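Hey, I'm writing a tutorial for new members on how sequence and structure tokens pair up, and I'd like a real worked example in the thread rather than a made-up one. If someone can provide the structure for the chain below, I'll link this post from the tutorial.
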Amino acid sequence: SLATAYVIAAGFVGVVLLALWTLTIHRVAWNNANLLLFNPLAWVLPLSLWRRRRGADPSLAAARVIALQLPAALAAVLVHLLPGTVQQNQPWLLFAIPVWLAIASGLRAGNHST
């Protein structure tokens, strides 16, 4: 499903951003607010998405990742709105936040189309 592809890609992007921030001296990659949108913990979700499509409840770990991800996405918006913020990530905000909300809704409501 598209949700599964998204969380796998989001986890991969999150790992790359985290590695660039912590393992390199590339200053442009430091403090990247997109890490709030593309979380490495997203890799916890594919199994729960698959289970949800078959009518089973998502795992507790998936519920916790979603409970962490939604406030993180809100924090990304707040960071974007801070005066003096130089990172221009509005397109990523506009892309990722609705997707995370749809995934959270699908996992919670039992929507089998996620």
